Amino acid sequence: MEQHEKPISAAPTAAEIEILAARAGLHLNPGQMADLAIAWRYAVQAAALVPRVIRFADDFAFAFHLAPPAHGKPAKSSTSARRAKRGSAKRGGGGH
Amino acid sequence: MARGALSPVELTRALFARIQAHDSRLASFVTLTEKPALAAARAAERALREGKRGPLLGIPLGVKDIFETKGVRTTACSRILADHVPTADAEVVRRLRAAGAVLMGKTTTHEFALGGPAFDLPWPPARNPWDATRFTGGSSSGSGVAVAAGFCLGALGSDTGGSIRMPASYCGVAGIKPTAGLVSRSGVIPLAPSLDTVGPMAWTAEDCAILLDVLAGHDPTDPASVKAPRVGYRRGLAAPVKGLRIGFLRRFTEADVPVTPEVAAMLARTLKLLESLGCRVEEAKLPAMAEFMATCRILLTAEAYAMHELNLQQRAGDFSRSFRLRTLAGGLIRAADYLAAQRNRNELIAATAALFRRFDLLITAATPGPAAPLEGQPAEEALLGMTLVTPGNITGFPAMSVCGGFSENGLPMGVQILGPAFGDAAVLRLGHHLERANGTRAARPALPA
Hints:
The complex is a heterodimer. Helix content of chain A is 41%, strand content 6%. By secondary structure, chain A is mainly alpha-helical. Chains A and B meet through helix 2 and helix 3 of A and helix 9, helix 10 and helix 11 of B.
């Protein structure tokens, strides 16, 4: 079974861009808003070029893999390994 | 060095003197670490005197400024991280130090490894050593420049959408984007995590192989790291390339992303060289480059926005215009469109993997022309501009650029070699044999006194 999905519709107007930006939590000055409108037009074009055939039975987009346990021991998650290794290392500089 | 004919300390001092003389014009380094570098060089010299050996012992290298370095400012060339001093090294930096490398400093990057040259940041964009009015490619711009200018013998780069291979092509050096998962990204400031890859840049494919021998290996702190069998990349270079089946992606450079006549001629010479080396060259076809690029743009824009959302919401004006243009739209991309791109990515991987049942390696250009002028390029152009590097990013398969020749005005042009997943050794081997056959490694950029 296949379904053909619709991409984003045609580029929105300036007023629509402002609403979309506000919904995304972006507070932009007029120059930045104009840049967003330009960038959005290209994003819309890119999205329209991506084929959209969904095969419900084996949808590639939702693949989810778990690593098998090693020799019967509980697997150490990569997150806990990273925390253990990097210790108290914290990134500074503007909450990045 | 092993024979005692070259001192790591003297080499390091000579390279810092060269940087002092020329880098105010080329801007390849953001931060220099002369004192710790000289300490590492002295330690390497002692180790060599004691009879210790290692492929990177005493070798001066650069590190792109998105790799965390303990106690050394790591800015990503962004005001957002202007004062960021990490408390730990990225895993790959740790590996280089452990191998005895001398880290000279942090190299210039496009902001957060994205976008083009920005003139509205505190750091000037790097300039091409073959012609300082020309673009370097990016985002690993400083790494490409520093290697080409002879400021260091190799450098770390990262490649999310061509950021190793494009500066390698424009700066006339070698650079490999290894198979995804082969090299750890732990401690590397992310751009688009499903695409980010770390790799080496150096003057030759052989030097890249030496670096990859040290960099590759499983790291449990990177969730995407894989446990691949150990491969001797340098050791594999000596094997002949005779009999390799090479697929030439003709449509990419003749129709999808038309290249300049000089790049077309360079490709034609390269194909003849490959045949003279005993390779079997035939035309090969992948899905259209526009499909690779559209898929990559949706993934990269959405993921980069997600990584930087908080700062884009709260302090958009602190980013360069170049960065904003490439990320802001990510806040408006629908989840359905992102998932359509992920789904299509897997279709493209399957199509590319199928082609590698017929061919050992694929060949195309790394960039459609030699480096364009640095200034006067509209920032918007990059939003629509087509590149030749995206299949390597979308598939995660290894891809490298080696110098294929020079334009009439002396600018380098890169050949791109793509391999199947974990075929990095074959990619490096062909790059090595091509460099030896095309003679491009004899020419260095002449830096004005």
